[in-house]
């Protein structure tokens, strides 16, 4: 049981002790019973008569009672008797009046307007089974199951705060300051606002609460403190009777000027709607304010009510507000429910509550309070009613809330207000009236939620940014890492800024793109002897030591949990870098794929097969090329082994990437202050004893050159931008191995929910799209990067130097083969054409001219080529015939003498 509940019950006991019962039961203590259709039914009314709401509600309730009693179609033969009690704007007196009202055997209570009194009286009506129909208690917590007999006949602040949250999201604001009265109405309403904002990834940055009835000086002190804060979006959730004091003080403090955003709940329209002619002094206080008002659709019923209101003589205000309409509909809701109640056989009867008997001679006459016997039945009928009233359709959902909650969004300006749109839980923000949207498919997409233009405080039409730098423009405190290595990214400088580098130039360029000035100062973090811990840098921002951190700060998961980062301005990721060595290739490197034994056997078989082919197949089988599959397999096996041997550059260790590095036991280098240390321990489960901190580029190079066996490291794990710069400065003596095994980027860190993070992200994207980001990069980091991929590609390409020995052997072998071939061909040619030789001996050439000699030589060479082109079978056949003819004896005549030529 909460402390508040104990206080309230104690208050009830105190009130009952002070009470003198005004009505006592009959002598026999029997329950009083009326007929099924009594002539008069008592109905309670509970509100503050002399208040902004009460002055409009009182005539509205009276008008409703008169209308019901004069309407023969409702409660025929039964009149409603209103029993009204004034709560006097006091929680204590209001509770007393509420308890006194319950003595009058009322079947239901219209009211109260106060959420605080509704909380107390709800416990009483729960006990006495009397429905409580509240037209003004908007506290969302009253809808809980605890308050069974509470029925809200207006809209809950749960929906109103959702509407405000959607408006805040519509204009892109991320933080608001809530100004509210510190009671049940204010606290619980603002709590609902916080929940609604959280759904849209926004928040209440500060809750500025003040006590009910606070003096102007108290409000002044509150607003002075609020004005020193960053957010300039204020949501004001107060009582109508004291709300204007907020704006009087705000105007006095200069908080109604350009750059401020003021949003009020329905209390402000409730004040302004009571006057047909706006008060100039009041309107001057609220120029540019956005206000929410309960939406009530235009209808003939509403027009008729408006016309009748103007003719009322007993009214305290020229006009009415939405609470008057809800109170009017509440009376009609009860009348229609009672009509059904009686039709279904219900009786108005009251009985003694055994739990309220006087105990131990107590002076409290609790028996004056009696239970409405069929109150539960009447409550059930009320919850299932469905009719159209002045405020629209009167029907309750499963949570006992009126269906179709909707609000008008007003922009106060000039001598009145201008409607800039609507909100409903059906379609969100819209310029179309909710009742027209109920006929269409539901669409709550943000792209379909427009609003008309707004004139903001200071008579500006551009939506305010919604925040300023805290402490009235105090410069932003920016932490910068005091780097020892890689100073191209960020380093100390003697210039006006005190720092310089690639990261500083990017930040300054982004800030210059913002539509507002950002005064800032840089503070170096570190001692200049070693790189600072970047985790400490980020923690300083989250702990409000700094407002932001600018530098080569990697965006990691753990860091995003405590600060907000901008859009990354440089891509990054962890890579492994290892040493490489130059391998000089030898002219005889082609011999290395096979052992010398293998070469001997292979060479012997090549000679043997070649001899066989030479003897058996030469110049006879032109298709002979050997088995193709076997030759392809031999070729591929040889070239793969040869490629791996002839690689121009090879690693001096077996590290081929992060996997092999993890599986080894060799020491690993990392940059001092880098997040890579925690990453390798926490994510890769590498033992801390294997990790070696390196503070400079010289230490990087020395550790890699020494290697793990001489006190160095097998490889270094660091971010790619650093490694590229390192390899460039060391003339590409080292190479990255494997792929990047993390993907991240560098960003600027800000405190959580800082609007600057969002604005600078947009500016960084603009720098990227315009090419300025690349130009800044080229200014500081325009390097010929040692590309591991291109190096690997070059390494697999074999030069002529590696094969000139092989080419020499092939050339010599080919020369001898050709020499033997042509010698053999010439010998065959002489045998093939012996006549030429004979003619050359027996008949010497006559003297010829030079031209004739050339012709003979050309003819002889042509004949030689024709001979070479002849088939081997043809040549052998002719040579065989010539040999046979040469061995045949000369032919003889018949007389035995040699024949003479004819």
TrEMBL record:
Name of the protein in question: Uncharacterized protein
């Amino acid at each position: 049981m909460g402390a508040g509940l104990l206080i309230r019950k104690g208050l009830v006991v105190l009130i009952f002790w002070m009470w003198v019962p005004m009505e006592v039961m009959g002598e026999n203590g029997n329950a009083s019973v009326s007929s099924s259709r009594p002539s008069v039914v008592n109905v309670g009314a509970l509100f503050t008569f002399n208040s902004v709401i009460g002055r409009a509600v009182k005539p509205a309730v009276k008008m409703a009672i008169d209308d019901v009693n004069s309407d023969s179609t409702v409660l025929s033969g039964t009149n409603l008797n209103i029993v009204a009690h004034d709560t006097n704007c006091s929680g204590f007196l209001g509770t007393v009046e509420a308890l006194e009202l319950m003595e009058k055997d009322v079947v239901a209570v219209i009211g109260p307007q106060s959420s605080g009194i509704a909380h107390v009286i709800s416990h009483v009506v729960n006990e006495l089974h009397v429905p409580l129909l509240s037209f003004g208690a908007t506290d969302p917590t009253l809808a809980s199951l605890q308050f069974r007999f509470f029925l809200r006949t207006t809209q809950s602040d749960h929906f109103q705060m959702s509407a405000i949250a959607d408006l805040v999201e519509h204009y892109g604001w991320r933080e608001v300051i809530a100004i509210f009265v510190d009671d049940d109405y204010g606290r619980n309403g603002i709590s609902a606002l916080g929940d609604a904002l959280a759904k849209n990834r926004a928040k209440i940055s500060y809750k500025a609460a003040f006590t009910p009835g606070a003096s102007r000086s108290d409000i002044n002190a509150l607003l002075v403190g609020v004005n020193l804060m960053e957010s300039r979006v204020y949501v004001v959730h107060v009582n109508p009777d004291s709300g204007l004091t907020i704006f009087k003080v705000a105007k006095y403090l200069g908080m109604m000027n350009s750059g401020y955003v003021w949003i009020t709940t329905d209390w402000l329209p409730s004040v302004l709607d009571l006057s047909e002619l706006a008060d100039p002094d009041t309107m001057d206080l609220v120029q540019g304010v956005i206000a929410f008002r309960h939406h009530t659709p235009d209808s003939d019923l509403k027009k008729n009510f408006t016309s009748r209101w103007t003719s009322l003589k007993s009214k305290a205000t020229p006009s009415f507000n939405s609470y008057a309409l809800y109170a009017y509909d509440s009376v009609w809701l009860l009348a229609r429910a009672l009509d059904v109640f009686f039709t279904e056989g219900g009786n108005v009867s009251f009985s003694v509550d055994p739990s309220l008997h006087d105990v131990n001679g107590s002076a409290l006459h609790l028996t004056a309070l009696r239970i409405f016997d069929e109150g539960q039945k009447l409550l059930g009928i009320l919850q299932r009613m469905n009719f159209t009233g002045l405020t629209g359709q009167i029907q309750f959902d499963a949570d006992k809330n009126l269906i179709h909650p909707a609000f008008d969004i007003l922009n106060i300006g000039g001598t009145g207000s201008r409607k800039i749109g609507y909100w409903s839980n059906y379609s969100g923000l819209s310029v179309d009236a909710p009742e027209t949207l109920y006929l269409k498919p539901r669409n709550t997409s943000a792209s379909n939620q427009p609003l008309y233009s707004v004139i903001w405080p200071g008579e500006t039409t551009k939506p305010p940014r919604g925040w300023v730098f805290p402490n009235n423009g105090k410069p932003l405190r920016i932490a910068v890492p005091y780097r020892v290595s890689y100073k191209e990214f960020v380093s100390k400088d003697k210039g006006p800024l005190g720092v310089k580098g690639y990261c500083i130039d990017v930040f300054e360029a982004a800030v210059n793109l913002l539509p507002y000035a950002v005064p800032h100062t840089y503070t170096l973090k570190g001692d200049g002897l070693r790189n600072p811990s970047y985790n400490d840098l980020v923690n300083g921002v989250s702990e409000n030591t700094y407002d932001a951190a600018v530098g080569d700060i990697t965006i990691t998961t753990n860091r995003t949990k405590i600060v907000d980062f901008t859009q990354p301005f440089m891509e990054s990721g962890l890579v492994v870098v290892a040493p490489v060595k130059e391998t000089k290739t030898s002219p005889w490197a082609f011999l290395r794929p096979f052992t010398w034994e293998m070469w001997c056997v292979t060479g012997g078989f090549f000679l043997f097969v070649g001899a066989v082919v030479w003897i058996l197949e030469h110049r006879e089988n032109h298709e002979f090329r050997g088995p193709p599959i076997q030759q392809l397999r031999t070729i591929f096996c040889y070239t793969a082994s040869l490629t791996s041997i002839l690689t121009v550059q090879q690693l001096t260790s077996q590290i081929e990437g992060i996997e092999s590095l993890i599986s080894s036991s060799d020491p690993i280098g990392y940059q001092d202050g880098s997040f890579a240390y925690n990453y390798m321990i926490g994510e890769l489960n590498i033992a801390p004893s294997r990790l070696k901190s390196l503070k400079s580029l010289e230490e990087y190079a020395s550790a890699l050159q020494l290697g793990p066996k001489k006190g160095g490291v097998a490889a270094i794990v660091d971010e790619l931008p650093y490694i590229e710069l390192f390899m460039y400065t060391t003339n590409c003596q080292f190479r990255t191995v494997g792929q990047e095994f993390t993907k991240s980027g560098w960003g600027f860190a800000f405190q959580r929910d800082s609007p600057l993070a969002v604005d600078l992200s947009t500016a960084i994207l603009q720098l990227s799209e315009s090419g300025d980001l690349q130009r800044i990069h080229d200014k500081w980091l325009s390097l010929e990067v040692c590309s591991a991929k291109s190096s690997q590609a070059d390494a697999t390409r074999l030069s002529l130097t590696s094969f000139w020995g092989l080419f020499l052997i092939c050339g010599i072998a080919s020369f001898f083969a050709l020499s033997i071939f042509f010698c053999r061909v010439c010998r065959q040619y002489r045998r093939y054409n012996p006549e030429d030789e004979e003619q050359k001996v027996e008949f010497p050439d006559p003297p010829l001219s030079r031209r004739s000699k050339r012709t003979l030589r050309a003819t002889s060479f042509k004949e030689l080529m024709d001979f070479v082109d002849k088939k081997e079978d043809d040549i052998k056949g002719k040579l065989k015939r010539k040999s046979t003819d040469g061995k045949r004896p000369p032919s003889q005549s018949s007389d035995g003498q040699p024949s003479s030529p004819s």
